[in-house]
Amino acid sequence: MISKKKTIEMLDVIDEMFPDAECELVHDNPFELTIAVLLSAQCTDVLVNKVTKHLFQKYKTPWDYISVSVEELMDDIRSIGLYKNKAKNIQALCHILIDQYNGEVPKTHAELVKLPGVGQKTANVVVSVAYGIPALAVDTHVERVSKRLGICKWKDNVKQVEETLCNKIPKERWNKTHHQLIFFGRYHCVARQPKCLECPLLQDCREGRKRHKVVVS
After folding, report:
1. Where are the alpha helices (DSSP H) in 59-196?
2. Residue 152, burial from CB neighbour count under 10 angstroms (0-12, 13-18, 19+)
3. Cα 142 to Cα 93: distance, rounded to the nearest angstrom
4. Which of 67, 69, 77 is nearest to 38 (CA)?
5. Which side of the chain, N or C, has fewer Cβ within a 10 Å radius?
6. What's this model's pTM, rounded to 2 decimal places?
C-alpha cells in the first residue's frame, strides 16, 4: 500500500479534479436522504432520483409511509432493485422512527445502524451529509478506486477499506473526500474502461501502471 503522505498527495489531485463533488441523491431533509440511500443499494443514484421525485411528493413523513399497504409502497418503488425488501424495510424503519424518535431520524451512527435496511454505509452517508458529522462511507466506487490507487489492499473487505481510509485521511477531510472518491470512480476511474491515459494520477496508480505497462519516471 502507498503511504499516508502519498495518499494525501493523490487526494489533493482528485480534489482539483472534482472540487464541487457532493451527494447526488436529491433530498430536502434527513428523512428523505435516509429513504434515498436505503433505496440506492445495488441501484444507481440516477434511477433512485427518478423514483423519489414522485415518491417524496406522495410521502412526506414516516406516518405517510405506514398509512398505506406494503403492496402499494412496493408498487411505488417497483423499478428499484430489491423493491419488495426495501418497501418492507422502509415501513419497519418508519414505525421505529415514530415509536422511538418522534418521527425524526437519529443523529448517531450507533442508532442509525439499528434501523431496518440501514447498514454501515447508509449510516455514514446520513451522519455526514445530513448532520455534517465526519464519516467516510465506502460504496463500490470508493472501494474500487482505493484499491486501484494502492491506498488499500486488494484483499481488504469493505470494513477494512473504511478503516484504512480513516487512518490515512485527516478527519476533517472525510466528508468531502467521500464524495470526491465517488465522483472520481463514477466519472473518471470507471469500472470497465477507466480513463487511465488521461489521468493525472497514472504515474502513481498501481492499477493504471499495470494496465498500460507504464514505467515510473
Report:
1. 62-65, 70-76, 83-101, 109-112, 120-125, 140-149, 158-168, 174-187
2. buried
3. 27
4. 77
5. C
6. 0.91
Provide DSSP, 25-52: S--SSHHHHHHHHHHTTTS-HHHHHHHH
Based on C-alpha coordinates, what's the Rg of the chain? 19
Cell of 202: 497514472
Query: Residue written as cell 515510473?
Result: 216
C-alpha separations of 1 from 126, 147, 148, 152, 181 in Å? 29, 9, 10, 6, 17
User: pLDDT tens digits for 4-50?
Assistant: 999 999 999 999 999 999 999 999 999 999 999 999 988 999 999 99
Element (H, E) at 148: helix 140-149
User: Looking at 62-149, which runs of residues are DSSP E strands?
Assistant: none
Q: Residue 171 corresponds to which cell in the numbers above?
A: 478527519
Q: Which one-letter amino acid corresponds to residue 91?
A: Q
- Residue positions annotated with a catalytic role: 121, 139
| pLDDT one-digit tens code per residue, 94-124 | 999 999 999 999 999 999 999 999 999 999 9
